[in-house]
Write a structure and sequence with these properties.
The complex is a heterodimer of chains A (about 950) and B (about 425). Chain A is α/β, with parallel strands linked by helices and about 950 residues long. Helix content of chain A is about 70%, strand content about 5%. Chain A contains 26 helices and 14 strands. In chain A, α9 crosses α21 and α15 runs antiparallel to α16. By secondary structure, chain B is of the alpha/beta class. In chain B, the strands form four sheets. Chain B has a seven-stranded mixed sheet with strand order 1-6-7-8-11-13-12, covered by helices on one side. A six-stranded mixed sheet of chain B has the order 5-4-3-2-14-15, with helices on one face. Chain B is built from eleven helices and 18 strands. The chains are: A alpha/beta (about 950), B alpha/beta (about 425). Chains A and B meet through α7, α8, α9, α22 and α23 of A and α1, α2, α8, α9 and α10 of B.
Amino acid sequence: MLVAVEPGGQAALRDGRPPRISWISIDGFGALADVSLELLGAGLTVMLGPNEAGKSTVFDFLTAVLFGFPPRKSDARYRAPVHGGRHGGRIGLSDAAGQPWVVERHTTPHKHLAVTRPDGSEGDESDLRRLLGGANVELFRAVFAVDLDDLRRLDGMSSDEVREVIFSSSLLGQRRSAAKAMKELDARRDALVRPRQGGEANLASERSREARRQLAAAREASRAFASMRKQVDGLAAEVVELRQQAESARAALRDATLLGRSFEVVLRRRELERRLSTLATLDAGEQRLLAREPQLGSLAAQLSGHRERLAGYRQLVEQAASVRRSVDRRRSELGGGDVVELAESERFDPSSLGAELRPLVEQVERTEREVAGARLAADRAAEEAGQLEARYGGDAGSGPHLPEASALEERLLLLQELRRWLGRIDELERDLELRRHREVVAESARQAPERRKLAGALAGVALVLAVLAVALLAGRQAPVGAGLLLLAGALGWLAWRVGRLRGDEPEAGSVPGPRSGSEAELAHARGRVDELAGTLVPHATAAGRSVAGVTGLIDETELLLDRRRRLDAERERVRDARDRSSAASHEAGRLTRVAERARADLAAFADRVGLDASLTGTQLKERLGMLAELRQRLQALGRIEGELSLASESILRFEDSLFDLAAHVGVAGAAAADPGGLASGPDPLPEAVVEQTLGEMSAVLGRLATRVRERREAEQAVAACERELSMALGEGHHALELREELDSGRVIDWQERAAEATESLSSLEERYEQAVRDHEAGSRQLAELARSAAVPEWEQRCQELEEELERAVRSFLVVSGARTLLQRTLKRYEEQRQPAVLDRAARHFEAVTEGRYVRLAVDSAPDGSKPSVRALRPDGQHVDATELSRGTMEQLYLCLRLGLAESFAERYLPLPIVLDDVLVNFDPARQEAVARELVRAADRHQVLLLTCHPQLAELVTAAGGELKTKTVRLERTR
Amino acid sequence: MALSRAGDDFCFVHAADLHLDTPFKGISETAPHVGAALREASLDAFDSLVDLCLSRRAAFLVLAGDLYDGPERGLRAQLRLLDGLRRLSDAGIATFIVHGNHDPVEEGWSAVQTWPDLVHVFGHDAVAAVPVERDGRVLATVQGISYERREVTENLALGFVRQAGEGLQVAVLHCNVAGAPDGHAPYSPCTLEDLRGVGLDYWALGHVHSRSVLSGAPGGSESWVVYPGNLQARSPKPSELGEKGATVVEVRSGRVASLEAVPCDRVRFVLLELDVSALEAVIEVRSQLAEAAAERLERAGGRSLVVRARLVGRSPAHEELRRDGVLDDLLTSLRDEAGPSTPFLWWDRIDDVCLPSLDVEQLRRGDDFAAELVAVADELSEVGIGEAELGEILGKVPREVARLAAGLLEEQGASAVLIEQSVIAALDRLELSC
């Protein structure tokens, strides 16, 4: 049963037994390997062993297994195994109820810890902590596990953990400790504020200072706004001034350049005006004459048309002459007279007459052709009939007489029937023969048994002979043997042949029917044959009694029938040809009459139109064609003469205009030679005359026009110069001034002014651009400054950082206040509780020193970290621990630990006390006294005293007696 | 000054304590969008004031001091002010300005060379009076006087007298009227009787940041004495919480007919005090805080909110809350949830002043370490935190920290609060709280 370690459990503990170490088992630890000690009991146990027996190793082993291995291997107490074995081991513990626990700890794997509860179940670290009264390694090492080194200083006991555990009993068993709380608060304090740098407040303070610097800079820049604006305004004015100056210089340069350029125009205008003054203007007559220039132009434009008209006119004259000649020739061909008059009359219509004549002529021609055709057909049919009669008429009449076709056909039928009957007779006769044969065979079958017997006999003889022959052959009488063998063979064949006659036996049920029906039919057939032969006589001769003979008769009859039929066909064709010849002759006569009527109609037509009635149709058609052609030529001649009249009028109009204009212009020339033109003669003016007249008029008017054009062009050029000047100089007062300047013509002056202005302008533009840049930069800065939120941003940042700093300081105050309260409380608690510890320690120390010192006092350092101990003598004299002899000081510190252990036991658990050769520096008396105190302490605690001094072991044993002490001997290790 | 508005009835707008372009106090960190909005807030609020005057066709605007926060008047603020007043002047609306203790005449610098035509800035030598006319008739006479320097201790109100003639008599003054809320610095101290005694119609005051009407009632004969409060809140202090803006004064037949408080602020400060007694866990605290803030934001009329939470009461959640980083995590979580929306909701901080669930009185009666600790704290409370105690608490710290800590403890009741918090912190560390 594990003793509860919660507050309030102390009473139960006091009633129980102290927890003690029952046994230890070392797997590997320092020089010890595979070592077990099982004799550890309650009370005081002296573990006696020589040097290098491993006492200090056991001392460190207990601490390592119960509280954990030192974190660093370099720690002397880590004690890695020297002689092998797994680093660590097990300790058996008895709790307050006497129940066994096992604690096993090894460095590997992962600082392995195993706690086994009394019931065998697996425990953990917290179980172990409770088993050990909540003590940690610092407390254990400071109070319960003491070696000689520990007795030379008080450091361990002054740690917060020890002080707290000893003095602050109300905190024991709680989840946290005041020391840890103070450590956490210290850590928090450090995070918030540090003496120099690193804390939140330090950082905020640094940032705040930097932000304030930035803010000051931003404000300074902001304050420059007014002066900067004034500067920018000044730059703006400067820009305006320089721009105006540059404009003036630019204007002067522009004027000077303009004057130089415009002066060339002025000079050109002056030359044009001079030329204009030399060009005279037209008088009234010239102007009127010039006004007729379009008329001349019109005539000139008509000239080519006039030429074409003249050519056409001449062509028409030639055409008219040609047509007249052909008319005269045709008239003479037609012979003149009425016929020609007919052609020239209005009522003559060649096309209608032609249309009327054409069917009449065609009628005549067609009937004449038909008459000729009919006559030809009649002649050909007559000729054909004659030829046919000549070819067949002889055969039909002069050859042997051929019966009529019908008779031949009838004969043929009879012959064919006769042949069928003759064939039937042959069949019937073969049938009767077969029947007779079968009857013979049937008789033979009835004789078969006797044949079989005979065959058997023959076969037997043949067999005997064959055997005999074989014997003879074997007896070298071959010829005889062979002969017998042949004989045997012959007899065998005979036997087989006789026996085979059985195969000719009729089959059952194949008994032939009665022969009487066939014989009757045969008789009927023979009768019919006789009847037919009688009918065919004389055609059916003896040959007519056999099938072959009848067949020959049939062939013969068929030949006759064929000849008879061909002869009948030829006769029909002759008859037909004669019929056709007769019909054609008759048709020719009819058509001849029709032709005669057509010719009469044609003659009537000729007579009606005034032509010779004796003319044939073709002749009539020719005459009508000639008349029509004559009429066409007469009509063409009329048209040509009309066109000649029109052309003549046009030519006359042109010539009239020409003469009229020539008269006005005053050109006599060639036109004057023929002023009448066509009007005065049959021919128009020659083209050369017309062209010469036009050329002369054109020359006169052209000169006038040239004068006018030249003057106009000069005027336009002057106007163009003026426009150019106006565009260059513009309008207004300044333009007038420039014109005056131009009139002066001071070119050199202008050039000098241009050079001056160019130089000035270059400088001004440079200054202007610089001023503009400065102004823009200034304006930009000004605008940026006006827009800038730097000041409020840094102000805000400063505020934030100050707030951050304030918050950090507030937190720091609270944390520090909490720490101060904890520290003050702990100190007070220590002051209030300490006397009980000191009283116990003082009692031990008084006993050890045999009354030389009676009280103890502890003085805390100002920061509470390093207390000092003073010992009081009975006379009240205080001796500081550091002033005591070494042995006495060690006795004092040992007594203090005993007092602390008892106080711990009082409030919690009497943990085992382990002492490693702590008595060696004591004198014998003090050793004995200390031994007695240890025996007393062993009443509540298990005390393990490790020593290498046998006399000390004896001393302790003597002090405690066998019942209270026990000695365990340790052997020196390898 | 001649105005173009016709008729006898008119309104004017009264604002004060603009503190243009000044930083916000008490906020330790902000997201970029929040920082930008806070920097613009006072300027935007002034733009809203100008828009208000224009929309109401006000006869004039009075600004009763503290246009700026101090001698370091921001350039941006001056140009923005100039721009707004030019808009008003262009619209025929006059502006009357007095300087207060934060922007006295002698301090600061001015980027403004010339004011718009209808702007009148009162000097500090003596009270001046300016008539406001419309169609040849005097609508009102506005009197005012500026601070020459920051600390003006004389009662400037005594320099005002009722002017002869018709029209509303308006006084513009930056002063501290005895009995006014918030306990502001007693510059130009005066009493309500001082003001009433002059016989003016309306005292347009500035200085106190909480809006308050100290005197006057519709139809009454007493002078109206009005603090309009500041235009835009500047910190999470109690006087800066809630709506901030200007007062529109409606005048009928030459008398003040009604007052209307019109909010002009763009960012509003909210203090959420949450009693966590009934809450078991931080998640519940978070949920209730988020819910309460969302509800406030919805009621803010499109304005952004800066929220500070204060957790009070005794709660089991205290143990969780006091753990390192928990409050920071809670704050971050709430900020993340709010996000960068417009209008925004910014969680400034969370003050955990809730108590552990343990009973200190019971502890005090015990006989253990906790009882001893409470006893030690009680003793410290009795003697107070003097220089020695502060030295013990602080240990070795930079001078600036020591100076700041001393300054913080000078605040009234700060020592007691510190000791109380220290006890709780110590007990928290001992994990005795539950």
